[in-house]
Every structure is written in structure tokens, then in C-alpha cells.
Amino acid sequence: MRSSIKLFKVFGIEIRLDYSWFIIFALFAYYFGFVYFPQVLPGLNKGLLALVTIITVILFFISLLIHEVSHSLVARSKGTRVERITLFLFGGMAQIEKEPDTPSSEFIMAIAGPAASFILALIFWTIWILTKNIKPVGEPVKYLAIFNVALGAFNILPGYPLDGGRVLRSIIWKVTGNLMRATYIASTAGRVLGFIIIAVGIFFIFTGNFINGLWFAFIGWFLQSSAQMGYRQLIFETSIKGIKVRDVMNEDIVDVTENTTLQDLVDDYFMKYRFGRFPVIENEKDKKLVGIISLHDVKEVPKEEWPEVRVGDIVKVVSGNEKVDVSMEISDAIKKMGKNDLGHLVVMSGNKLRGIITKSDVMRFIRIRSEFH
């Protein structure tokens, strides 16, 4: 979230740009404006060349966006929430709340993207047929038609997490009834495919096609690492299934009153208990929660001011996004932390604090639990 920019919403889905997107935008703008169009459209004046370049690059990324939106709309039709779509260096990624519940849902969701790309290719190809004699229009739409065919074809390659890999997983899942096994096979295929693409990239580099070779190598690396990460993510989600917040939360709470100075907070709490954050209460009598203060909050205040500044002066009030119920699935709690960029969640009972849960608490719990399985 911190490394991306919010643009707008499409069908209620937030569209964001990762900062890495500007790299690929600049590369394509350079390629179209200084290499491709000057060759296929010789003699075009600079103003029109710049306009054609900008429109083509925009349509290029709109094509990627439509590909991802199609996945997202199918996911929503199956009852799965889609938070956002982010465009980044290697294309686009829809943040879908959970994995499909059935093989058929996965299959339909997976083929939606390539289908959208092939439909776009047909639309651009039709426009090219009608405008091929108008070169400043015909050449860009011809390129976009070819690009969408390539985008659809690449994504149907049978390697997870590509769409084709998800189709493969859905078929194996349907046949075996085992999502874990299906994911392992599809992700292995994805890693093999990634290494093959890396090998092709290295071949291009050593045969003088350095730029394309480097690009292939990056795509292959991204694909194989994403395939491995996808399988590990499923293992993790499976290992925490059924675990509730009450099972993980820390109920042995050390709280701090809002009148405590930052100097006392550092000396008597951070240095003594070695926790990364403490709940702040109004007073010891009613234990009403004010907020959570972290080491980072304290470090933002100059050290010479610590003896005078009180915790209540800088504590951050607990928001609704930080509060959870004891019965919440720990997987949902982790997603809530990630969605809201939080390092902790507080478990409340009315206005009183029941416990705190942090990412480190979760990982420690999982690690210890795995030792007994």
C-alpha cells in the first residue's frame, strides 16, 4: 500500500499504481516514441508522434487492467471480495480476498483473463482492418492486437500462478479432490516454466539481444519465485485453519497509564519487558483503553523531551480497524493487519482490553505448533 498510488475505482474495485510501474511506463514510452513508431511511421511530425505514443502506452496498460478486472468480476460473481487491482512492473495483480472454494470456480475465474485479452485482440484487429490505410491509427491498433494475443497466450501457459497454471490446478483438484497436491503440481510446473524462461533470457543475452534477454530473465525469475511463494502461502493458510484469535492472543498484558513520561516508559517498560508496544489506559482503576504506543512512536520525539512529554500526549487512539473479536479466524486477523498496514490488533470486551495479538505472536504460535505435528 505504501509503495503504490490510488487512481480510481472500477465497479467498486480500487485501482492502484505501484511505483515500479513508472519504470515499465518509461521503457515502453521510449520504445514506442524513439524506436518502434519512428520505424513504422517514418516522417510523422514530432507532435503527432508524441500523441500516438502516449495513447498507445495508455491503451497498453488499459489492456492489462481489463485482463485483471475480468478475473475480479468473475471472483465477485462467485461471492469473493476483491479489494484492489495494482499495476506494477510485471503487469497487474488483483488482490482477491481468498482462494476459490471449488475447482469449477477456479477454472472459470482463471480463463476469464485470457478470454478478455483475446476479445480485446479481436476488437483491435477489427479496428486495424478498418483503418490500416490510416497509418497513425492502424499501426498502433495492430500492435495492440498482437500484444493482447501474446498476453492471453502467455497467461494460458500451464504454470501457476499464471492463469493456465490455475486452470491446470483446477483440473487436478477436480480429479484428485486434493487442493494441496494440485497446488504443488501446478506450482512446480510454474517454477519449471520460470527457469525455462530464464534460460531463454540468458541465451538472448549471450547472442547479443541484451534488452530482451534481461526482460525474459526478470519475468522468469518473477514467475518461479511467485510459484514457490504461492505454494508456501497455501501451506501456511492450511496450517492456521481453525485457529482463532483467542488461541494466539497475549492475555498477559502490561499496560501503561497515559500520565507516564516517555523517559519512564523507556526505562521501566521497553527496557524491562522488551515488548515492541504497550496498551495505554486512562488509569489503573477502570483500565479504560486509550490507545497503543510503540517504540517507533517514542523515537519520533527528541530524546531530550522524554522527561517532560507524557504518553497521553503522543499515544495513537485505537481505531476500529485495530479491534478484533476473540472468535475471529487468525487467517482473517492476519489479512486485517496486512490490509491496514498494522503490526498488531487489540482484542476488546466493551471498553476494556482482553488481549493483544501481533504478527510475531502469530509466527511464534505457528512455529511452536508445527513442532508437535
Please provide a written account of the structure.
By secondary structure, this protein is of the alpha/beta class. The protein folds into two domains: 4-239, no CATH class; 245-370, CBS-domain (Roll), CATH 3.10.580. Helices cover 59% and strands 15% of the residues. The strands form three sheets. A four-stranded mixed beta sheet has the order 1-2-3-4. A four-stranded mixed beta sheet has the order 5-6-7-8. The protein has a three-stranded mixed beta sheet with strand order 9-10-11. Strand 3 (82-88) and strand 4 form a beta hairpin. Helix 1 packs across helix 2, helix 2 runs parallel beside helix 4 (135-155) and helix 6 packs antiparallel against helix 7 (210-239).
User: What's the pLDDT, averaged over the residues?
Assistant: 87
What is the string of SSEs from the N terminus onward? EEHHEEHHHHHHEHEEHHEEHEEH
Structural class designation:
alpha/beta
Distance between the termini: 35 Å
- Rounded to the nearest angstrom, the radius of gyration is 26 Å
Helix content: 55-70%
Task: Characterize this entry briefly.
With 373 residues, this protein is α/β, with parallel strands linked by helices. It has helices spanning 21-40, 46-77, 103-131, 135-155, 163-176, 179-206, 210-239, 245-248, 262-273, 295-299, 311-314, 330-339, 359-370; strands at residues 4-10, 13-18, 82-88, 91-96, 256-257, 277-281, 289-294, 316-317, 323-324, 344-349, 352-358.
